[in-house]
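Support request, please re-run this one:
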Amino acid sequence: MKLGVIQLPSLGLFVPGIPVQQGSKVAGKRRDGTLFVRESAKGHKSWRRSVKEAAEAALMASDEWEAGYDGPVELSVRFYFPTIASGRHWKTSAPDLSKLVRAIEDSLTDAGVYKDDSRIVRYRDVEKVHGPITGASIRVRTIETVKEEENK
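Re-run finished. Output below.
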């Protein structure tokens, strides 16, 4: 017997703006002596809010996606950054791709797209590029493993 994968419902959305990473922390001390830790990336909260709001709107408009999905999913994300003079397609400078994805994963959890980002079992087409627009194009797909009979 062979295992195969079928693709089921998906949810797609676009979030305009400059993508901001999540993951780098800064520690400090307040005037009263208490310690704190916060995200180091400027605009992190605003970007996460934008992703969450776009995901909530996509959920409301979708007739095929089950909010709070509790099964395996595949995540595709293309991050678009401003074009540069060299015309280079791939963005090879900061921010880190993995930290950009982390912000998306957590925002989609907050929006109720899936129960938890641990449900992401596969990435597909995750990249950061320079383009004529800025933002993130996101698609979440449900996937299921099915047993297929091998033809011998």
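The two ends are 11 Å apart (CA to CA). The CA atoms of residues 52 and 87 lie 31 Å apart.
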